[in-house]
Design goal:
Blueprint: H1 3-12, E1 20-23, H2 29-41, E2 47-50, H3 53-61, E3 75-80, E4 84-85, E5 91-92, H4 99-107, E6 109-117, E7 130-134, H5 139-147, E8 152-155, E9 157-158, E10 161-162, E11 170-175, H6 182-190, E12 195-198, E13 200-201, E14 207-211, E15 217-220
Parallel strand pairs: 1-2, 1-3, 3-6, 6-14
Antiparallel strand pairs: 4-5, 5-13, 7-11, 7-12, 8-11, 9-10, 14-15
Helix pairs in contact: 1-2
Bound molecules: ribulose-5-phosphate (5RP).
Length: 221
């Protein structure tokens, strides 16, 4: 059973005709985009924006209508995945490297619905390394500043080259193991020049739709 798929398809049930919808990134959001494509073919009318070049391409392939940002004054809802979520709907995102675009789109959405399989639900964030998007200028100093926060930052690579985000930046995956105070960590990270954004999404998700191996889907709010 594909838990990501059942969660994503359940979340798509919240999309109503005429809505403006943000399309997330990753292997769970993938299923939401496919399902939206099917519904659009059956007559659903939506206007969408994508959170990555990969999701933009997928939406085009599946016939989901993409609208320029300048033509929309915000979104009704966004459906996106997460790398970890806790029971307060605090998230770690950015495993796919799209955290900055995902956060911008989520910020301008009335609702952010997270779709995930049960393995993503945790009591305390931090086992998944926190993705931090950094600019290349003086990045060694930015990495030092990250180390000073008591984590092990690793520059993300892709086929032995540095991974480059859709925005032309790098990702430092920061191994904290346990994030005991996510709000304080966010505050400290965002105080470091050179960090464009980081993968903690706090107070942003309105719901999480979780697929379980028993075949049922539950919704956390
Ligand atoms: C991409 C993300 C993804 O939503 C996150 O990595 C989850 O991905 P997947 O659904 O493939 O497990 O934040 O930047």
């Amino acid at each position: 059973m594909n838990l990501k798929r059942i969660a994503a398809e359940k979340a798509v049930e919240f999309v109503e005709d005429g809505m403006k919808v943000g399309l997330g990134t990753g292997s769970t959001a993938y299923w939401a985009i496919c399902k939206l494509g099917e519904l659009v073919k059956e007559g659903l009318s939506i206007q969408a924006v994508a959170t990555s070049l990969a999701s933009e391409k997928l939406a085009q392939e599946h016939g989901v209508p993409l609208i320029p940002f300048a033509k929309l004054d915000g979104l009704d809802l966004t459906i996106d995945g997460a790398d970890e979520l806790d029971h307060q709907l605090r998230l770690i995102k950015g495993g796919g490297g799209a955290l900055l675009r995902e956060k911008i789109v989520a910020f301008h959405s009335k609702q952010l619905i997270i779709v995930a399989d049960e393995s993503k639900l945790v009591d305390t964030l931090g086992t998944f390394p926190l993705p931090v998007e950094i600019v290349s200028f003086a990045m060694e100093w930015t990495m030092d500043a990250l180390r000073a926060l008591h984590c092990k930052p690793m520059l993300r690579t892709d086929e032995e080259k540095l991974f480059v985000t859709d925005n032309g930046n790098y990702i430092a995956d920061c191994h904290f193991e346990v994030i005991s105070d996510a709000e304080e960590l966010q505050r400290r990270l965002m105080g470091i020049p050179g960090i464009v954004d980081q993968g903690l999404f706090l107070g942003m998700a309105s719901k999480a739709v979780i697929g379980h191996s028993s075949g049922h889907v539950n919704i956390l709010e």
